[in-house]
Specification:
CATH superfamily: Creatininase
Order of helices and strands: HEHEHEHEHHHEEH
Shape: globular
Largest sheet: 4 strands, parallel
Number of helices: 8
CATH class: Alpha Beta
Strand content: 5-15%
Bound molecules: zinc ion
Strand order of the largest sheet: 2-1-3-4
Structural class: alpha/beta
CATH topology: Rossmann fold
Oligomer: single chain
Length: 270
């Protein structure tokens, strides 16, 4: 079977994938503290796994190829705990712009930014918007894997309704993928009862906060409820959702033009 990993392919194989209208997944995550029990690579490791599984599943319907993960994201709010490397937004955008422009010049038109880090959620949407405006022949879609899979992940979890930083879900998936990197000797002591509304004020307004505002050890939730079996289910459900996103023609459809008679012929980006 041909690899779905860009880095493993030869240039002529990638030219053929462009000619076959393959989707390019650009995973992006973080290198940041994940409490006392998990390594700093968690988000990058997990989004890489979800990307690879999703590409294999989508492959029959739509050729898909996965670039290596952008392993640094926007992690300023984790810096006080140590172990964390962060970009600023301008740098993250510039990295994406160069990568997407490169794949565009090779003939690919459909790019999925697959995000695996909470601090990148808003930024990845803005990057998708700005790159669509910059490269009008391209469709750039931004997804955060656990938000795309939210309805499937909730029923698999007991302590939380979706992925939380270093909690049940992330610890489960790491126990499945990298058990030697998880210190599971005292998971119950790492539990926190963080108030997850800490980024909002008023009726729904945003204010930036360090993670130190809600957790003493860098964990959100209860990692002691994690199991490797649950991790496998979470990875499968997440990659199912991303595969379906990729193979759904609506994801890549051009913007409809519903303007009526007399609205003029002002050009716009489709
Ligand atoms: Zn994480």
């Amino acid at each position: 079977m041909t690899s779905i990993e860009w880095a493993n392919l030869k240039a002529h194989e990638l030219r053929a994938l462009a000619a076959n209208n393959a989707v390019v997944i650009v995973p992006v995550a973080a290198m940041e503290q994940h409490g006392p029990h998990l390594p700093v690579q968690v988000d990058s490791r997990l989004v890489t796994e979800v990307s690879h599984r999703a590409a294999h599943k989508a492959q029959g319907d739509r050729p898909t190829v996965v670039l290596p993960v952008i392993w640094t994201g926007l992690s300023e709010h984790h810096m006080p705990f140590g172990g964390t490397i962060t970009f600023d937004y301008q740098t993250l955008f510039s990295v994406f712009r160069c990568i997407v422009d490169s794949v565009r010049r090779h003939g690919f038109t459909d790019v999925l930014i697959l995000n695996g880090h909470g601090g990148n959620i808003d930024a990845s949407k803005l990057i998708a918007q700005d790159l669509t405006l910059d490269f009008s022949e391209m469709t750039v879609v931004a997804a955060t894997y656990w938000l795309e899979a939210a309805s499937r992940l909730g029923p698999l979890l007991e302590d939380q309704s979706n992925v939380l930083h270093a909690g049940e879900a992330e610890t489960s998936m790491m126990l499945r993928l990298e058990p030697d990197l998880v210190d599971d000797s005292d998971l119950a002591s790492h539990r926190t009862d963080a108030d997850l509304s800490f980024l909002t004020t008023g009726e729904g307004s945003f204010r930036w906060r360090n993670l130190t505002a809600v957790t003493a050890n860098g964990v959100l939730g209860d990692p002691s409820t994690a199991t490797a079996a649950k991790g496998e289910q979470l990875l499968e459900a997440s990659s199912d959702a991303i595969s379906e996103l990729i193979t759904n023609p609506f994801t890549w459809a051009l913007t409809p033009d519903l303007r009526g008679e007399g609205t003029g012929d002002v050009p716009f980006r489709r």
